[in-house]
Structure to design on (133 residues):
């Protein structure tokens, strides 16, 4: 059964210079394509890239599905460091371009893995006020 919850397509302002803001919006446009593809796959499906690159999946919060991400190291997903993509901070133009290009590549290859216990993939959003502290 497909999940009836809509995918959040809100792109929060990044609060940076114009070039970084543009890179942020472009990154999110590709993230929305990835989210749409993941929405067609069974719950708990994780988008895999090269070892050492972050993984992505859909998580549910407040009636929406959001794209979440976590780093990997030596083949393990660092779930404790997971965040919603919309809550990422401190990335420059080059880092955003690298992440976007990785997701563009994933859209072509669609390498995935399924996590049996989808509760492990829950990620709560970060309040923008919490990040400023």
């Amino acid at each position: 059964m497909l999940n009836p919850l809509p995918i959040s397509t809100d792109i929060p302002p990044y609060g940076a210079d114009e070039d970084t803001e543009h890179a942020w919006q472009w990154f999110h446009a590709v993230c929305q394509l990835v989210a749409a593809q993941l929405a067609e796959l069974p719950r708990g499906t994780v988008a895999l890239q090269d070892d050492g690159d972050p993984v992505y999946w859909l998580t549910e919060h407040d009636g929406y599905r959001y794209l979440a991400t976590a780093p990997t190291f030596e083949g393990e997903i660092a779930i404790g460091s997971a965040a919603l993509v919309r809550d990422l901070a401190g990335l420059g133009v080059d880092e955003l371009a690298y992440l976007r290009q990785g997701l563009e590549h994933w859209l072509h290859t669609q390498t995935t893995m399924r996590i049996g216990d989808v509760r492990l993939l829950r990620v709560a959003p970060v309040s923008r006020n919490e990040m400023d502290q």
